[in-house]
Amino acid sequence: MEQALPGAASTIAIIGGGQAGGEVATLLRQNRFEGRIVLVGEEKYLPYMRPPLSKAFLAREIGKDALIYKASVAYEKARVEMRLGSRVAEIDRRAKTLLIEGWAPLHYDKLVIATGGRARELAVPGAGLRNIFYLRTISDVEALQPLMEGPRRLVIVGGGYIGLEAAAVAVRLGLAVTVLEGAPRVLARVTAPDVSKFYERIHREAGVDIRTGVTVNGFTAGGEDGGVGAVKCAGGQSFTAGLVLIGIGLVPNIELAELAGLKVDDGVVVDEAGRTGDPDIYAIGDCAMHAHHGFLRRKIRLESVPNALEQARVAAASIMGRPIPAAAAPWFWSDQYDLKLQMAGVSDGYEELAIRGSMEASSFIAFYLKEGRVIAADSVNRLGEFMAAKRIVGARMEIVPARLADESAPLKSLLQPAAA
Ligand SMILES: Cc1cc2nc3c(=O)[nH]c(=O)nc-3n(C[C@H](O)[C@H](O)[C@H](O)COP(=O)(O)OP(=O)(O)OC[C@H]3O[C@@H](n4cnc5c(N)ncnc54)[C@H](O)[C@@H]3O)c2cc1C
Q1: Span between the terminal Cα atoms of the chain, in Å
Q2: Same domain, 44 and 145
Q3: CATH number for the domain that contains residue 155
Q4: pLDDT recorded at residue 14
């Protein structure tokens, strides 16, 4: 059945003031929604960009203002009512209202859930000791920063992107840095063993002590101000620490949706248009388990800025009855030292790997193939070639690995149909 479009007397409410929430708010207006738009965000800041939290902002190279995604004038022009520093306590689907702490209930005609996620906590003895931190928000960085100076001993639990980015910043600031990773290699969930090995080498050369296959099972006091003094690991190993950063992943904020009776499964379950089982409620960004009907052809929850922005575009179009584009190949980036890593696609289940360029020279693209087709690419310091690599992934190009690795032909030329 055709859905009625929300008219000038309607209210669209958005829960969550991250990049997904901030983007969908202004896009609704661009899609000619005439009614009321209200964004409720628990953090006190305008929607901001989290990627620099573990990079330039942590390194104090940029200030807080540079994190803000869009200036307040953008929301004013789009007539978005911003209720920042306010938490939605409940979605009452029957009454179509939001219960917001400190505010009267807010009626909605359409609702977008953009609640993102929170840092996964490490539940081991001593985890509540002083000087143990997580990294998800501006406040987290502000708490951590005063302690980020040499010659303190920083132990980072988790060798994923956030842990490794923070390690790169910290070692440059003069701290003695150890990274403890439970898996046999860093970045194990997202890259090939060769690429993990490359990153381990770069970090070790910079002076970071990378330990893999190490399971942290507790913290003990003994540091400054009675804070953490050591990290305990299975097998009896122990690492001295004056400061600990835990980066072991994200837990999606799905409790509101779950309480409201919406389907959840490691994310708020939505279709390719971003719609939940309730036709008036959408979910986007890190909190959404999305039917990726374009490129991936499966359900997936992605944690990236490009995904948050794309899902905001899809939801805004879908709410306003406009056609939605098929989902493109997901992509992501990570900056460590002078290395610009850009990734396209999802490499899970790959069968073959082709390396174009040189890992020794820190300039290469790793292409992942499955059933003879390119499903993902990790590009390091190949900014000029990444667009072509992304298109090759997007097209799921069928190609022999040797041709991808052959640098005598420009990557772009592989996209052109062969001459007859
Ligand atoms: C340190 C770090 C580095 C990163 N680096 C990269 C990178 O290099 N590249 C990349 O693509 N991605 C990166 N990411 C991931 C990227 O930042 C996220 O994918 C993106 O922020 C998701 O946006 P979102 O709006 O879905 O969620 P979030 O940014 O989590 O925003 C959700 C907001 O909703 C609020 N909220 C939750 N519940 C409620 C409630 N009940 N009421 C009101 N408000 C609520 C939260 O407080 C939060 O402000 C990084 C993330 C972190 C933490």
Answers
A1: 48
A2: no
A3: 3.50.50.60
A4: 98
Indicate whether residue 175 lines ligand 1 (CB < 6 A).
no
In a domain, 2, yes or no: no
Residues of the chain with pLDDT under 70: 1-3, 417-420
For ligand 1, whether the C-beta of 52 sits within 6 Å is no
* Atom nearest to 47 CA in ligand 1: 49
| Residue 333 in contact with ligand 1 by CB distance below 6 A | yes
Cβ of 116 below 6 Å from ligand 1: yes
SS3 221: strand
**pLDDT score, position 319:** 97
Q: Give the distance from CA 133 to its chain's centroid.
A: 18
For residue 282, the tally of other CB atoms under 10 A from its CB is 29
Per-residue pLDDT at 226: 86
Clarify whether residues 225 and 156 are in a common domain.
yes
> Rounded to the nearest whole angstrom, what is the distance from the C-alpha of residue 18 to the centroid of ligand 1?
5
Q: Render pLDDT for 51-103 as a digit per residue (tens, 0 to 9).
A: 999 999 999 999 999 999 999 999 999 999 999 999 999 999 999 999 999 99
Q: Residue 258: in which H helix or E strand, if any?
A: helix 255-259
3-state helix, strand, coil in the chain (%, to 5): 25, 30, 45
Question: In the prediction, which pLDDT does 74 show?
Answer: 98
Instruction: Give the pLDDT score at 1.
Output: 46
Structure tokens at 276: 């939940």
